[in-house]
């Protein structure tokens, strides 16, 4: 059992110890930045969930045609859309509860819990003999996907020193890209090797099992432990992550900004001042991220390339290397030469995915995990990720139908319009080089 300590007592106590320990003869002793090496292994383990997220986004790209033939729904764009979107529906459900799971069980247990349905769902998808089994397996995978990414964003921001938090936060996006690349390259033989798509699903169970195992040896979030009043464990994890010389100063900093964290936040509080502003920012950022059409590339690039007259093998290899919309609109014209279609389609996809990975991909998760106060961080991330998954669901479900109905020119012009709207949305704060507590006090002084 642990003893809950009132935040006010912590503020006074740690302030006095910090002043006595770090200030001598009126001169402040700068202890410098904590080591970036200590938290790195823990961050890398957490990014396994992002790898799985990317892998399951891309696993149906090359394999969808083989799956539809083997399971008997070839030619049905709605059934193909369901294979994609059912996973996203499960992710929506998982994301709704991710905040409560992360706050109730802790970040480490949330990671382990997210791995279980991904292992189960991958096994079901790999062994099914019908569409229903595939959809059920994809749904289970989705629930794990819904829990993992928001918890990863929380965890990485909470265990990383301020001066490398942005770098470590970008690891989650890089890991997502690695997962997508792995899915695309592992799926290459699917069109030639009978039943290869089953291997593609079995492979995903390996990193999921590693995530569950390695999290047992990883550090728990000091912020979560502090919020629960488990002060001795908080100090142990801070020393493990940042070194003994930084424990007192970090405890003092947390105690100043996290007064009242012993009270659980209610959902209704997220819709009112002072929290409504940051929740609105987060929801809009994730909405615009998905309305850019990025996941239509990851889900259906084979279909898109085929509609533009480009061999899907060549196209998907290029997407795997890096993966704007203006080029794609031009390439959809029937009057454009075949060679031009090939170069513009592949070049447009490459440029689109490259620029997405530099900005709109990693920034929302990183930014939101920093601007949300600790008391609401997990649940606010859950709300914003739910918005993400709802829009992602409809993109996956309706893309093929809209591609047939509108054609690539109009559809990609719509995506490009949302990209322009995203450029105009600048209602955010700069968080680079600031501690989580400094960001909170600057953005929400009333909290």
UniProtKB/TrEMBL annotation:
Pfam families associated with the record? Sugar_tr (PF00083)
Keywords per UniProt = Membrane, Sugar transport, Transmembrane, Transmembrane helix, Transport
Q: Does the keyword Hydrolase apply?
A: no
**Does Transport show up as a keyword for this record?**
yes
Q: Which residues cross the membrane?
A: 43-61, 81-102, 135-156, 168-188, 195-215, 278-302, 314-331, 343-368, 380-403, 409-429
Residues of the Major facilitator superfamily (MFS) profile domain = 42-434
Topology relative to the membrane, per the entry?
Multi-pass membrane protein
Compartment(s) of residence? Membrane
Q: Which InterPro entries match?
A: GLUT, MFS_dom, MFS_sugar_transport-like, MFS_trans_sf, Sugar/inositol_transpt, Sugar_transporter_CS
Alphabetically, the GO molecular function entries are: hexose transmembrane transporter activity
What is the designated name of this protein? Plastidic glucose transporter 2
Query: Per the UniProt entry, what species is this protein from, by scientific name?
Result: Sesamum radiatum
Its lineage opens with: Eukaryota, Viridiplantae, Streptophyta, Embryophyta, Tracheophyta
